Amino acid sequence: xxxxxxxxxxxxxxxxxxxxxxxxxxxVPTILFSLMRALETGWKPVMYLQVLIGIGVIAFTRYRHxxxxxxxxxxxxxISYIAGITGLLQWGLMSAATPFIIVLVxxxxxxxxxxxxxxxxxxxxxxLLFIANYFVSGSELQHYDLTDYFTSALSWTNFIMTLTFTxxxxxxxxxxxxxxxxxxxxxxxxxxxxxxEKVEEQTGQLIAQNEEFExxxxxxxxxxxxxxxxxxxxKVNHTYREMLGYSEEELLGQSCVALSLEEEQELSRxxxxxxxxxxxxxxxxKRCYHADGSVITVxxxxxxxxxxxxxxxxxxxxxHEERLRQEIHNQKERYHQLLTLSTDGIFLIDMQGRLIECSxxxxxxxxxxxxxxxxxxxxxxxxxxxxxxxxxxxxxTPTEPIGFETQHKKKDGTVYDVSVRxxxxxxxxxxxxxxxxxxxxxxKRLRTQYETLIxxxxxxxxxxxxxxxxxxxxxxxxxxxxxxxxxxxxGKRFQSIVNWTPESLNLALHETIRQIRRxxxxxxxxxxxxxxxxxxxxxxxxxxxxYSRQQKIISIDGLIEDITHKKEQERExxxxxxxxxxxxxxxxxxxxxxxxxxxxxxxxxxxxxxIAENLKINLxxxxxxxxxxxxxxxxxxxxxxVFEHDIQNNHFNRExxxxxxxxxxxxxxxxxxxxxxxxxxxxDEKVHLTKEIHTDPLTKLTNRKYLQYIQDKxxxxxxxVVMIDIDHFKKINDxxxxxxxxxxxxxxxxxxxxxxxxxxTLIRYGGExxxxxxxxxxxxxxxxxxxxxxxxxxxxxxxxxxxxxxxKPTISIGIEPHTxxxxxxxxxILHADEMLYMAKxxxxxxxxxYEENRVAxxxxxxxxxxxxxxxxxxxxxxxLICHYQPIVNTEREIVMYESLVRLIDDRxxxxxxxxxxxxxxxxxxxxxxxxxVLGYNFKFFxxxxxxxxxxxxxxxxxxxxxxxxxxxxLARFPDMAQYLTIELLEDEIIEDLEGIKRVMEKLxxxxxxxxxxxxxxxxxxxxxxxxxEFDFLKINGELIRHIDVSxxxxxxxxxxxxxxxxxxxxxxxxxxxxxxxxxxxxxYH
Length: 1085
Prior knowledge:
Layout: H1 2-41, H2 45-62, H3 69-91, H4 98-102, H5 104-111, H6 114-137, H7 146-153, H8 156-219, E1 223-228, E2 233-236, H9 238-244, H10 248-251, H11 256-259, H12 265-278, E3 280-289, E4 295-304, E5 310-317, H13 319-334, H14 336-341, E6 345-350, E7 355-358, H15 360-366, H16 370-373, H17 378-381, H18 387-395, E8 402-409, E9 415-427, E10 430-439, H19 441-455, E11 460-465, E12 471-474, H20 478-482, H21 486-489, E13 499-500, H22 502-517, E14 522-530, E15 536-547, E16 553-562, H23 564-583, E17 586-589, E18 595-598, H24 600-606, H25 611-614, H26 628-638, E19 643-649, E20 657-667, E21 673-682, H27 684-693, H28 704-710, E22 719-726, H29 729-736, H30 738-754, E23 761-766, E24 769-775, H31 781-797, E25 800-802, E26 805-807, E27 811-816, H32 825-841, E28 847-849, H33 868-876, E29 880-888, E30 894-904, E31 910-911, H34 917-920, H35 924-941, E32 948-951, H36 954-958, H37 960-972, E33 980-985, H38 986-989, H39 993-1004, E34 1009-1015, H40 1022-1026, E35 1032-1035, H41 1037-1041, H42 1047-1062, E36 1066-1069, H43 1075-1083
Parallel strand pairs: 27-28, 30-32, 32-33, 33-34, 34-35, 35-36
Antiparallel strand pairs: 1-2, 1-5, 3-4, 4-5, 6-7, 6-10, 8-9, 9-10, 11-12, 11-16, 13-14, 14-15, 15-16, 17-18, 17-21, 19-20, 20-21, 22-24, 22-27, 23-24, 25-26, 29-30, 30-31
Helix pairs in contact: 1-2, 1-3, 2-3, 3-5, 5-6, 6-8, 29-30, 33-35, 35-37
């Protein structure tokens, strides 16, 4: 039926929805046409009604799902009738209402009954008559009156044709409707037949299930009862009836609640409500009345039946177990006092390991409450065995008491040791295990400590003997002590176990007798024996004599320790102490620094005669001293740290010696300083050696190593840095020899030393250079300037006589005043060196001071301080360029070009060689730069038949890499050798004459020519120079520059040209700056 009703509903829904759709479509033109007529003829009441009906149809179509299907059908019929009537009243039956009436018959039959259907059929028949008449006569009905319309329609001819057409259409409608209805009823019968068959099948299954339930219910060994929601019995099985002693007739219809004890009836009612609510209830105990009036204990559980209206209860008689529990309870009461007063834990356990009863002490030992204990079993607290081992142990418990040790676990997880005595007992026919438990944690710990003391006390051994000194026990490890096992020693007399020395035996006997006479419990003494290898061993013995109550000796015990190694250490310590006392000077002081004691070496070192008197001396100045050195000393010592320093000590005699002093704080057990020990080490030799290392042997000034030594020990910001250089010192060496040069260095050093103060430091920095660290904490530059000027004038005015020759040296000075801008001493020295270089370029014998605001105007030194990295970066970025200066003959014709190197910095500024070459001179960057310059020149002149010169230093030419570049280039372009001239400086050549000669000969064979540059600036030996057979001689520019005004320059140039002409060397003049100099130069050509 459900399936048929569902299909029917679906059919209704489709019909109604379709009808509503048609209504919605057809009503729109009706409304529009009414509106048009209203505009033509004026509004009439029926027009208002038609518009409202149209809006209602559209709204109902939109919200049709909010009402049921019958209500929808009724609304459709109502709308259709109203629409038909309004159409008939307004403009004839041939209106838009007619199609609505056609659908009324099937709808009214399906939803509203036969009477409404007949009425609908009548209206439909009339409508069909009007429609047929329209089709037969072809009249336009909407323009006729109603009277004319009926007159026309009732004419006999039209009536017969109209009736015939109407019957045909109506017959078709009824036939289709009857066919649909017959099909629907046939489908309904088929569904009903299938439903009956299914019901019969399910009924058979239910009967079978019911019979099976009845069989299980009645034959169950447990008590089963079926009750309704009110708790009345509907069915009970045989076991349930026997349990309560009632017949089935007595129980059926009776309330199960009434069988419960009065105080438990409310509980029974709550149980039924719980089952009805949650569907089940777990097993619980309850008491109820038996038919004979007695009270029995049962266990009850229940479940809700699938129909949600009936409950099945499962009941079991628990009276026997309850009685047993009561008997045990009675027995427990008898032993209650025993359980309460017992200091041991008492447990009564069934054979499954469940706890039946226990004493208060048991719960206290385990850390549980008595309530918590009742839910525990042995496995919950036995930590020494697994669950299976516990059950096995319980089952194997004999009827005679046994004892064993195990471990129990407390509630908090703590494990402790227990001693257990258990026995199997029978109570009321049931077997249990009765056990007493004692906590032996402390006892076992003490026993373990005792055993450890005896067997594992690290070189100590326990020995027991009787009154006759016979050994009856010795702890393990005796092999280490005596070389014998405990079994070998036991039973022997103490005197015979090893080869004791006679003195030791006498001492042991003497100590024992004295101990007995003085009634002392123990005595301490040492004994010695020789082992099998005749090695002497020393034992320390603590002997204890045990007495009885009657003061008789029971036994003699001893604790023995091998102290052989300790004795050797003591002897070694004494020897070391003697050595230290003899050879290490040290003193011990109190916390104020007053000497308490001192070593013999201390008195010897400081030559102290009256020891007692000098012990009162305070080694350090008091804490209140204002001396910063001693303030630092006390601050270090008070913080518990070691203080070290070097001092010249003259406390006890007038002699002064250098000592390295190390003062070490001494602490007590509470980490409080109790005094100090000061160790003295004579460093006179070290100081003397250091002084030699830091002293220049020629000038007796400090040297550069001393500068490194003091660099971290001074605050360089308090010093002005002064660089001093002897002018033309190389010429002095070359002209007068090195002995004269050494004499000048000594005299200049003495002169400089004479004008400085004690707080200043003068250092021979290297060669003819001196570095003065002038102490100027006030930053008054005038102080430094005055002292520097006095030194310059004094050196200038002094004459140095050497072998009938008078040498008048001068000095140039560069000053870097200390400022916060200078980061370190190296930077300050660099600034001072720049100023020294400037002083030399400005004519020497002068002072230049480093000032930031005027460095921009320097002529010979770049203001920018270039670092090695700056120069390396520029070279790597190919920012080296070469300028080519022409060299002309007397006819002003260019005969060759001189290659001049320049460097471009990051700002595009050109840097002269003097500003960067000295920075990289001794680095591999200089070699790389030389390679790059050579490459530029060879590339520039490789396709030009033009003479050119390249300036190289001797070190460049002697460098294997540079040589190889030149060789490779000439090998690749052999024609270039005839155009290449290498210029070498005069003062560099004499440094390695033989080496440069070999290189020149090698290159000369390839066609290269050589020029000596800046000739006349130094004091080189002419013979040595011309042994190298130079091709060109370039006269020093200073001589040429003054040739027109200086007779000395003219004579020097004339001599050089004459000498060069005789040696067949071409002369080149530098610094020909004007026509007058050019004319002078032509004279010597």
